[in-house]
# Entry
Amino acid sequence: MISNNEPHVDFRNFNVTIPDVETTYWCTRFELPSEIVKKPHHIIRFDGIVSPQSEGVVHHMELFHCNVPPEKEVPKFNGPCTTEQKPMGLTECRRVIGAWALGAANFIYPKEAGGTIGGRAQSRYVVLEVHFNNPDLKSNIIDQSGIRIYYTPQRRKYDAAIMEVGLEYNSKNSIPPHLAAFRLSGYCLGPCTNVGLPETGITVFASQLHTHSTGVQVFTRIIRTDGKIEILNIDRHYSPHFQEIRILQKPIQIYRNDTILHTCIYNTLRRDDMTFGGYSIHDEMCVNYMHYYPKAELELCKTSVNDASLNEFFLAIHKVDYALTDTTHKTVEENYESIRWTPLTSAILQTFYEEAPIHLSCNGSNGNYLPGGNWDIYSAQEPLQRDVVLPSRCHQ
Amino acid sequence: MISNNEPHVDFRNFNVTIPDVETTYWCTRFELPSEIVKKPHHIIRFDGIVSPQSEGVVHHMELFHCNVPPEKEVPKFNGPCTTEQKPMGLTECRRVIGAWALGAANFIYPKEAGGTIGGRAQSRYVVLEVHFNNPDLKSNIIDQSGIRIYYTPQRRKYDAAIMEVGLEYNSKNSIPPHLAAFRLSGYCLGPCTNVGLPETGITVFASQLHTHSTGVQVFTRIIRTDGKIEILNIDRHYSPHFQEIRILQKPIQIYRNDTILHTCIYNTLRRDDMTFGGYSIHDEMCVNYMHYYPKAELELCKTSVNDASLNEFFLAIHKVDYALTDTTHKTVEENYESIRWTPLTSAILQTFYEEAPIHLSCNGSNGNYLPGGNWDIYSAQEPLQRDVVLPSRCHQ
# Structure
């Protein structure tokens, strides 16, 4: 355990008056303490600090490190993240070094690892982003919420990092309306873990599951090279309102050639139109941010259905259900919207997603593909990965 | 062979002027020759006789024996079968004793069997029905077409008879529109052949396949109790315009507990609405009239999908495709018409027909069920019968 008296630094709102609108993202730029700027440190714990008067309104908070050269200034800012006044200079502040969400406990790193921060080679700037969710339009709440970082110059054996697995952010994998449970999966396949993980493998010790508002179940499974399946994280009662980072009860190793199969189940009973994969709050995502060590080449391993196969699907649904799909003149979104969505056509799409060839993005920390890491892989080569069945009793 | 000089009698039209309309059924009542009336005979051959001037217009002809008590008069008649002037007394004249259709050869019984006719216990009346198909509306053709019966008082070892297998004449099994090939099958199952056939089995020596206008392939298979499958009759290029009775190249035995699986494939590309099973020329049938000996208890062995299962289908298609089916307030026909027929929903119906429980009518010659012969049989008990695959090369 790490005592509350250990060295720490707070990044908290400066008496922000929470706007009386439903949704506000509030951004504040900070500088790291000079002792951290001087030499590399490890973050060994971080806590969310929610002002008592703001409880129930602070939805989640993230502390981002700015991934810019150390000499580069990041402009001072304190205001809504979405305002046009927000300086472009904050755009590169996206590396998560601390986070809190409704339901989250304090985040304590395993004793052999820490989050990397500080040193002359790194930018000294961080940005706190606080999401206020204020559906009752309460006014006059003065907020000082934020994140507390515990740090140490005695760096531990391993640098921890975050790896993102699941679905690519595009509309190829989308969700029909009026369904109680539609399943999407991302397949981080063996060829990617083979080139992207160290020979000794990695240890995942925490996991943050992420969807937008229609996600109802999320789980990540590891498929070993011998076909055995282990559950990394599972939430059978997932709520997008509780996106805490969870420390795994038991850390789990991932080795080269293992497959990381990340699955989200969505409920679109209240939607009348197709829900697309994408960035907007009305779009959907299916991601697991895995906290692990030691830091690997691989940072993002995500898939979506293969383009040519999706066109074949649009052609087939035209033939069998007279949908006015048109792969020459319509976009993917327009084609999905040309289909008469029923449980029947939805079931066909579900089966298609489970059996169709996929495109796999296997990216390093610079955002580029790892060597060979841009694959159109045919599912027929990986049949087991689509067929696994979860045990009926919850794990963990 | 039976020489043309053997005793015979002709039942031919008396100089009928073929009406200049597309479709005419012409009916003529005859009396059998007195020597036949006096004692039971065997029919050993029958020929179609088409007047030269009527060739191409005479579509098919059938000679029916009247199944009424011998003392009962059947009124004299010579006119269109469908006119209201046709006496009701002809209604019972339905037992086929001779037939000809476009493409038919002379029908010669196997030497050990003959068709039953004559004797004091039988009616002396027969009715000839000639179907004129005159789409060119030709006029002034005087027709003397009909059927010639060869008979003998030296009766052979076995009485021949006709058994009807295939689908029941109702709308439960129906055909969606706009399909190149939709399959319907009737299943004369082991429990029926077990109670309806003699212990020594029967020998089928001829077969008449029958559908209405959308039939394109018809075949009958025998499934033995050991699972082996034999083809009784197959027409991969079936035309409803050539409904001849075919003498089988090789007679085939059917034993107790064998299954007789009769299948028809329909093409409804030119239809915009559902084609129902039924009697009308716009409805469809799927039947094989098998000529066999010795005469058995079983005369009709036909199936259709089980009522409760069909209701479950209508309920399911409401759920999965939002069809406005309603098993409480709509008829079977109305429910079929409530479905949006696409290749997809049609494929579901096809699978349903192949896998759903069935009702089996197992009837004797009096039209009543044989003992136990009214079954709702679950297909799960007979899985093999739905899965058989035809050889790719034609037999016969």
Remarks:
- Chain A is about 15% helix and 40% strand.
